[in-house]
Each structure stands twice: as C-alpha cells, then as structure tokens.
Amino acid sequence: MSDSLPARRDDAYARLNEATIFAEAFNQLIAPEDTGAFFLNVAHHFLNFRTALVLSLGSPAVTLARRGIDSAEEQAMAGSMTAEHIEEMRHKVRLKVLPAPAGVENSIRIAVPFVYGGDLVAFAVLQYDRPTLGDDDSDILRVLGRAAGSALGRIIQAQKIEAERDYAEAIFHSMVSPIINVDTRGVIVKANEAALQTLGADIIGRPYGESFGFMSFDPVGECLRSGIAQHRVDAASRNGVLWGLTVSPLTVARKTIGVIAGFRDLSSLDSLRKQETAA
After folding, report:
1. What share of the chain is helix, strand, coil (3-state, %, to 5)?
2. Interior angle at CA 150, CA 148 and CA 97, nearest 5
3. What is the pTM (predicted TM-score) of this model?
C-alpha cells in the first residue's frame, strides 16, 4: 500500500505540471471565444467532464463556448450560476460547487472563476459524472482558470483600447475645421480631410514648418518643448492664408508624444481690420 502512494503523488505532480504548460499557451490567443473554447478543450483533456459552458460577464452575459449541451440546456446551466453565486465568486476567488441538476445522481457541477486584475471577467460551469472532485483536479482547474482569466482580460482590454482609438479617429476625421497631428520630430503624421484640402494632400510626412510661416512665435515648437497648450497664435500658410492656431499637447502616461493643432481662416477678419484702420 505504501509503495503505491508516491506513484499517485508523482502522477498528480506530472498532471499539474502539464496543466501549467498548457496554461502558457493561453498567451497566444487573440479572441474571447478562442479563450473559452481552449479552456474547455484543455479541461476536458484532464478531467473528462460531461457538459460545460463558459460565460463572460457583461450586460448581457455572452456565451464564449459550450460543450455537450444545446441552447435550452445552456440556459439551464447558466441559470444555475445565480447572482448570489457570482457575487460570492467576486469576493472569494475560488472554485464554487453548484447544486447538481434535479434527478441527476453521482454528479457534481463546478464553477471556475476567470479573473483579471482582481476583477471577475468570466466563469466556466463544468458538470462531471462523479460525486466529488479530487484535490489535484481542483488544482488543475485553478491553474487553467487563472490562465484563461489573464488571457481573456488582456484580450478585452486590447479590444477596449482599439475601440477607443477607432472612436478618436472617427472624431478626428469628422471635424469640419482643419486639424493636424505633429510628432516630437516636428513632422505631420496625421491630418483630417479639411486639413488636407486646405494645406495640400502632400503634407503627411513633412515638417510642419513647410506648411506654415510663423510670424514671430512658433506655437507648435513651444508646445512640444513645454507641454503647455498655445492658444490663438496667428500664422501664414504657404499659400498666403492667415490662420489662427490652437495647439495642444498629446500625452501618454504624462509624456508628450506630439501635438494636435487646430486652425481657422482669419484672412477675411484681417482684411476687415485693415479696412477699418484705413477708414
């Protein structure tokens, strides 16, 4: 009897080590659905569950993957994870034993939390045809759940950043007034349609000084140096139009990475002033 005990422990350690290797593969995933499907595949490899479901939290919750169930059974399995269970899992990040389905004997249903940055982002519900779950099996689910949570959180965060970037791009290009983005080298790296029509389609990739002839003060250069916004500075473009510029620093993590310059045509206003002076 004593001779068989180390063999069982060695087997448990080997399985846990294998699960850790699988966990590293979660870093290669780029979609939430892939994360859910991969978790179920790996979990089934180790524990051979009967049915399973992965749900991401949100309004509404989204099914990322399911196995061995149809849509009706999916709703029933998802419903077994009540709001109280979810709230408990938020505060106590650990596996949760759920009530087994009515009429099903020798079965256990386990909820596995997917956590990212301390927040519960999703969970899996797995049902096994066995009355209990061993400690080594629980350890494997914890390892896989942590890896899935980290991957899913990273993917969701990247999607949010991409959505925010797309939103900012849409605003930038929809502005009626001309706007340009100048990097720290003083090169125009982006311009909306109004700026391209006003200053020329060839301004991208050129130094901003080629587009403006500043009279006595360079607001773009000063904003890049100081990180302080410059308001209502007059400048003449290469086609002779007088512009009023407002330049703001573009910062990331408190570091200036460029400036955004917006401008409007002051030629008519300047002409009016000259007429008033002459009169």
Report:
1. 45, 30, 25
2. 50
3. 0.72
